[in-house]
Specification:
Blueprint (H helix, E strand, L loop, with lengths): L2 E3 L4 E5 L6 E2 L7 E4 L1 H6 L5 E2 L6 E2 L4 E4 L8 E3 L3 E3 L3 E6 L4 H10 L1 H6 L11 H6 L1 E3 L3 H43 L7 E4 L4 E6 L11 E4 L4 E2 L2 E2 L4 E4 L14 E4 L1 E2 L8 E3 L7 E2 L4 E6 L7 H8 L2 H9 L2 E3 L2 E3 L2 H5 L2 E4 L2 H43 L5
Helix pairs in contact: 5-9
């Protein structure tokens, strides 16, 4: 069978901004299918269908604007949002077309065009070549893809469950390590810090030479220095971090990641930190271990207190440095601190090793998904 360019059989109708839109259902209005409704099925608003592109349950949509450009999926009945297009192709079932475009997602998503808000490069999609099998053969291929994907999904679910169990185990390790803490010396977190300071608000600039951390650099008890960007500004000492500082997330879209912390390791070059992180600099490294304090702040009553202080504004979850400073902590003598840190790290290192294996398997599962699609559209499935 001969290959054809998808553009010769493809139909795309770009959604439009509706003339009338409301948060409430009004007479004659339909659900407005924006990216949130498309991906999660959550309807935030309704729109008049007048002069708009409409979609029915099961129609195929593709994201044309934004970071998810190239993503395809089934529609719900409503008005197609302005960042989406309704698509179909002569001679192809909707599911066969969906899986074909899904096989091109990485290319489409990485070859977006435009400055500012990225846009789908529809020309790349239209120039993609494919074979048009008979309808029964398309149905057979789709059924085989879904059979293999189902098996893959079960494996992925098992891996994700393992990650959840590791998170529970980590908390159990910390809980055990700090049992009996009531007999230790009691402090406010601020008593132990010489400085608690919000970060610096700067836009990244790839032509710069100074590094500024991303918010994503801070994960529970881990600071990933590779999660950083360049900037032209040379930072003052107060805007940089140094070894044994403790960094907290000040804002995040997820409440689970607000108020989490990590200790700064030894650095080979200066790093600044953004305004959505909080730097806490210890007064006296001889009196306590920074890692001990970070572990303490990540469990039990300390973590419970920090969660209680999270406030949500305009969809962003945040915590104030003033609230972190008021956290009650208990410290034993330094010898006991070092012993507890060593015990925790021995146990957590096993977790870290397992989690790396799980993460690698999850990446391989995604690669396997793309391999299945590649084989399907090369006639090898």
């Amino acid at each position: 069978m001969n290959q054809v360019e998808l553009g010769t059989i493809l139909h795309m109708e770009k959604g439009k901004k509706p003339q009338k839109q409301s948060k409430e259902i009004e007479d004659g209005f339909l659900p407005y299918v924006d990216i949130k409704a498309f991906e999660k099925g959550i309807i935030d608003s309704y729109a008049s269908p007048e002069k708009c592109v409409l979609c029915d349950d099961g129609d195929l949509l593709i994201v044309c604007d934004g970071s998810r450009s190239g993503l395809t999926g089934r529609a719900i009945k409503g008005v197609v949002g302005s960042t989406l297009s309704k698509i179909s192709a002569d001679g192809l079932t909707a599911e066969y077309l969906r899986y074909f475009i899904q096989s091109k997602y990485t290319l489409l998503n990485t070859q977006k065009k435009g400055t500012g808000t990225p846009h789908l490069n529809a020309q790349i999609l239209k120039q993609s070549k494919l074979i048009i099998p008979s309808l029964p053969e398309q149905e057979r291929i789709v059924a085989r893809i879904e059979e293999l994907f189902s098996e893959l999904d079960k494996a992925v679910e098992t891996l994700k469950t393992t990650k959840q169990q590791l998170a529970v185990y980590r908390q159990a390790v910390l809980k055990e390590a700090f049992s009996g803490h009531e007999t230790w010396d009691k402090y406010q977190f601020s008593d132990l810090m010489s400085e608690v300071r919000n970060g610096y608000g700067l836009k990244p600039d790839d032509s710069g030479e100074y590094r500024i951390l991303k918010i994503s650099a801070v994960r529970p008890l881990n600071l990933d220095l590779t999660e950083s960007r360049l900037n032209k500004t040379k930072f003052s000492d107060e805007n940089t971090i140094k070894e044994n500082d403790i960094l907290f997330t000040r804002y995040n879209g997820s409440r689970e990641y607000v108020g989490i912390c990590a200790v700064v390791p030894a650095l080979t070059e200066p790093y600044a930190y953004p305004d959505k992180l909080i730097k806490c600099r210890p007064k006296d490294q001889n009196s306590f271990h920074s890692k001990f304090l970070a572990y303490y702040m990540s469990q039990g009553d300390a973590r419970k207190y920090l969660r209680s202080k999270i406030k949500t504004t305009s969809g962003q979850n945040g915590i104030a440095g003033a609230d972190i400073k008021k956290t009650i902590v208990y410290l034993p003598n330094t010898e006991v601190q070092f012993k507890i840190v060593a015990e925790i790290e021995t146990k957590l290192s096993v977790c870290d090793s397992i989690e790396k294996t799980v993460d690698t398997a999850l990446q391989q599962a995604e690669a396997m998904r793309q391999s299945i699609l590649k084989q399907a559209f090369e006639g090898r499935l």
